[in-house]
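Sample intake sheet
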Amino acid sequence: MAAQDIILRPIVTEKSMTGIANKKYTFEVAKTATKIDVARAAEELFGVKVAKVNTVHMRGHLRRQGSNEGYTRSWKKAVVTLKPDSKTIEFFDGMM
């Protein structure tokens, strides 16, 4: 898979933004991507050095609207930690 197919979008939440000070960045990734795939994709896309990657499968939640109910989609989240000597990811620099 190409790097653009592995890292789908950044996760911009209050909790994920607190990790930027420690060079931890959160992304939505492809469900089939491994930790090694995510690390290589981040290094290729952003030109950084990755120290480690933590992944979590996010389950879909039951939601109701009136008498209709269904589940939101499930997805995979990855927290990418950069090495201390690595540069930061420019996309997140303007959000702090």
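Comment: The chain has one domain: 3-84. The first strand starts at residue 7 and ends at 10.
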